[in-house]
Amino acid sequence: MIGALEEVVRGGQSSAATRFFSAGAGVSSCPRSLISRMKNASTATTAANGIAQTKTVDRLDAMPVAPNPRGLVADEPTTPLDVTVQAQIMALLKSLRSEYDMAVVLITHDLALVAEEADRVAVMYAGSIVETGSVAEVFADPRHPYTKGLLNSVPVNAERGAHLKSIGGAPPDLHSIPKGCVYQARCPLASDVCRSTRPTLQPTGAKRKSACHFPEEVTNV
Fold it and tell me: Which long-range contacts (CB under 8 A, 24 or more apart) does 185-189 make?
C-alpha cells in the first residue's frame, strides 16, 4: 500500500470515496459480489456502532471497475471513524487487495494509519509532493521540513499539561501559490533560494526523494 498525506482546505468538509482503476481499456460494472461485500461490511458496522456511524455505508462507493482491477484509490477511508470501524474498513481493503492482487493507494491525514498499513508514502503539501520513500525510512529520518513538522506534532509519551508541538502558520491559498518553495512561509530553513526557486524532487537515497533545497539539514529542525 502507498499512503499519501496532504494538507489542503476542503471547505470545512471531509470527503471519502473508494475508486478502482484498471490498466485495461474496457470498463464494466462492478462485480455484484464486490458490491455485496462492501454493503454487508458497512451495514454491519452501522448496526454495531449506532447512529454515529450511519454514514459508513456511504464511505465505500463501488465505482465502475474493470473485470481485473489493477488498483484501488481510497480517499480518507477511515476518517473520522472510531478505531473499531477503522479496523473493519482496513480489513476489507486488505482482503480486496489480496483477492484481486492489486495495488492500494490511501489518501489520508492519519499518520498512524500510514505507519501501520502502507509500504511507501508520498507526502503532499499544497497540492505538491514534497517527499517520497519507504514508510520506515521517511518516518525514521524525514528529509523535508514539512514531513518533520508532521511527525513532531504527534504526541509521543506526552505528559498531562505538556506543550504539544505544531506547525505554525497556515497553508497557502491554492489559487495563489507563491513563487519558490510552497512551504517557505512556514519553514524554519527558508532562505533566499527558497523564495526564488521552487525545489523539485531529487534523490536523497536509493529509493527516496525530497523537494527541498536543504534535505541534509532537516535533521536539525
Answer: 186/146, 186/149, 187/145, 187/146, 188/145, 188/221, 189/145, 189/213, 189/214, 189/217, 189/218, 189/221
Residue ranges covered by each domain of the chain = 2-117, 120-156+163-220
Please state, in angstroms and rounded to a whole number, the distance separating the CA atoms of residues 195 and 188. Answer: 13
Q: How far apart are CA 55 and CA 60, in angstroms?
A: 10
Along the 221 residues of the chain, how does pLDDT read in single tens digits?
Answer: 555 554 443 333 334 444 544 443 333 334 555 555 555 555 545 454 544 444 444 444 444 445 677 888 888 888 878 888 888 889 988 988 898 898 999 999 999 999 999 999 999 999 999 999 999 999 999 999 999 999 999 888 778 888 888 999 999 999 999 899 999 999 999 999 999 999 999 999 999 999 999 999 999 88
**Assigned C-alpha cell, 104:** 492500494
* Cα–Cα nearest to 1, from 110, 127, 79: 110
Whether the model clears a pTM of 0.85, i.e. scores above it, the answer is: no
Nearest to 218 by CA among 132, 143, 123: 143
